[in-house]
Amino acid sequence: MERLAQQFLIGDANVYSSVTFYDFLRPENQGKKVYVCNGSACLTAGTQDAMTQKLGEHFPADEIGNMCCLGRCHENHAFNYAGNNYSGQAIEQIAAIKSDKKARPDTYCAKAHGTPVLTAEFPGLEAFYQVLIDSLKKSPDDLLAELKTSGLRGRGGAGFPTAFKFESCKNTPGDIKFLVCNADEGDPGAYSDRYIMEERPHSLLLGMILAGYIIGARHGVLYIRGEYPESIRAQRAAIAEIRQAGYLGDNILGSGFSFDFKIIEAQGAYICGEETALLSSIEGQRPEVRVRPPYPTQQGLFNQPTVVNNVETLACIPFILQNGGATYAAIGRGRSTGTKLVCLDGHFNQPGLYEVDMGTPLATVVHELGGGFRHPAKAMHIGGPLGGLVPVHKIDDLTVDFGVVCPKWFPARPRLRGVHPRRLPADPVH
Ligand SMILES: Cc1cc2nc3c(=O)[nH]c(=O)nc-3n(C[C@H](O)[C@H](O)[C@H](O)COP(=O)(O)O)c2cc1C
């Protein structure tokens, strides 16, 4: 820490306050070799005490630490060892894992209930990147117009219109602009960003390149949580693949547009999922939330105009530009266009990742896709710590989209023509 402070001409206290902010770097976490997942899906499954005990047969107690949510919520029993995540029955093979340190395949159900946008089969590099070749022949304004038509809204929680953010950054003067992908997926129970990064890595990368072209950024920063070592490796491998194919670097395909990636391996801090804390983290500062305005699109990373988007948001862009904004807007309902990936944990009879059209009844997700609860449940935890608890008797009142409001909570609102009875005209974001 002292050497860093000297090298970068910053105070010792600043370096100390930044370093000690992160779970992985705290003094109490030094020397740990194996990490037990303490995310809410694993915790509520009640599997982790027995697992810690089992690990205790192979590791001294002071080598066993914790990590918050390894994204293995579909089968619980998750732990991290030697740069790999394990879950399910893997704990029974701990002796073998300890000696070979090899990853074990993570298989889980991943399928679309409605339109496959993000779970569609990968058609191969050439076919998939054809949309890049076609898009680079169009103007950024034309592509932005397509994005506006699509009605895409951010999947990171706030549901902010993506085209609006792009337009703001594009119109802010500046020679250097950044596109940042928020791959911190801090909400325990969620593993949809992990799915995209590992199973559909090119959807994200291509989405970022296209977004960079629209806003005028040549730097794409992927901020990936350290709890997802497999995602980091998958993204690195996919980047190498497209560099080889000529879809990355200087003057891509002779278009005059240049773009490249930098991956940041986050060090364990839930708040870094908040976009301004994330930007400070990339800058090496203590990752505290910044006051807005100025907004990142005006003064973001290193004070330059910056767009920050969630993984799932960016991964939708190739589909939109390939099929047209109107095609995307035709999926879903009202101002909630497109599809949503939902993650069901081990409390369901059929856990897994399901892609549903926006507006799908929650009851369909719980009963039809999830096969119902494995045991009696009182409430469902939706959307992480900032989300909410849905009592099971409310499941039938809700749909998967932005701005669903139960009529009983707002009895006085008039029913409008063409508007779903459960939807308020103002479409508030939940
Ligand atoms: C405490 C907190 C944690 C957040 N964590 C995440 C996260 O893990 N991933 C994410 O994409 N957005 C997260 N967000 C939302 C981001 O601040 C930001 O709205 C989002 O990255 C914007 O991308 P989008 O427009 O594509 O949704 C979080 C927000 C807050 C307040």
Which features does this protein show?
four-stranded parallel sheet; 17 strands; four-stranded mixed sheet; alpha/beta; single chain; binds flavin mononucleotide; disordered C terminus; 430 residues; Glutaredoxin; 33% helix
Question: Helicity level, as a percent range?
Answer: 25-40%
Unreliably modeled segments:
405-430
**From the 3D coordinates, which CATH architecture of the domain at 109-329 would you assign?**
3-Layer(aba) Sandwich
Overall average residue pLDDT: 92
What class would the helix/strand composition place it in? Answer: alpha/beta
Give an account of the 3D structure.
It is a single chain. The chain has 430 residues and is of the alpha/beta class. 33% of the residues lie in helices and 16% in strands. It is built from 17 helices and 17 strands. The strands form six sheets. The protein has a four-stranded mixed β-sheet with strand order 2-1-3-4, with helices on one face. The protein has a four-stranded parallel β-sheet with strand order 8-7-6-9, with helices on both faces. A three-stranded mixed β-sheet has the order 5-13-12, with helices on one face. Helix 8 (140-150) packs antiparallel against helix 9 (162-171), helix 10 (192-199) crosses helix 11 (201-215) and helix 10 runs parallel beside helix 12. The radius of gyration is 22 Å and the shape is globular. The two termini are 41 Å apart. The protein binds flavin mononucleotide.
